[in-house]
Specification:
The chain has 189 residues and is α/β, with parallel strands linked by helices. 40% of the residues lie in helices and 22% in strands. It has one domain: P-loop containing nucleotide triphosphate hydrolases (Rossmann fold, 3-Layer(aba) Sandwich). Strand 5 and strand 6 form a beta hairpin. It is globular and about 45 Å long.
């Protein structure tokens, strides 16, 4: 029997650098990125099937009813989800899969019972630093920033339910720590 793969879930609050860390980790490891689904419109330069699978709301909801998503959430009016078949096939074929999702989605994946699962919470060095990062993005209104900070406070309280916590204070150090964690062998359950 061939070696089974593993699903590595990376999550944490908005503004901690999850996406940048995941991109750097993909360059340093044998992980493959899980392409998730969304109903939000593509941003400039995004490609269907590469950045996300872009769905209209009716098609996404049909997939929900059919059980095609490992996890799903509605975030700021848009639906997001992880295709169950992509994850199951990847694990079966021995791949290390990297999934960058929000804390709510990570909770659903933990509850799904996948035995080949590792969860990593990305955190900011402090609440003040997280607020500074969100404000410095200059891409959100004050109302959106305040809502993201409120959600982030609650999300940070869940970090003890993860297998690992990586603090993204120094980006290069955080990437090295992530790579070291991911390189560890799959533990037998």
């Amino acid at each position: 029997m061939s070696k089974r793969g593993r699903l590595i879930v990376i999550s944490g609050p908005s503004g901690v650098g999850k996406t940048s860390l995941c991109e750097a980790l993909l360059k340093r490891s044998s992980c493959r990125r899980v392409v998730t689904c969304t109903t939000r419109p593509p941003r400039e330069g995004e490609q269907d099937g590469q950045d996300y699978f872009f769905f209209d709301r009716n098609s996404f909801e049909e997939g929900l009813r059919a059980g095609r998503f490992l996890e799903h959430a509605e975030v700021y009016g848009n639906l997001y989800g992880t295709p169950r078949d992509q994850v199951e096939e990847g694990i079966e074929n021995g791949y290390e899969l990297l999934l960058n999702i929000d804390v709510q989605g990570a909770r659903q994946v933990r509850d799904s019972g996948i035995p080949e699962l590792m969860t990593i919470f990305i955190d900011a060095p402090s609440g003040e630093e997280l607020e500074r990062r969100l404000v410095s993005r200059a891409s959100d209104s004050d109302e959106v920033i305040n809502r993201r900070l409120e959600v982030a406070r609650a999300e940070r309280e869940e970090k003890s339910s993860y297998d690992h916590v990586v603090v993204n204070g120094d980006f290069d150090e955080a990437v090295l720590e992530l790579a070291e964690i991911v390189a560890r062998p799959v533990e037998s359950n």
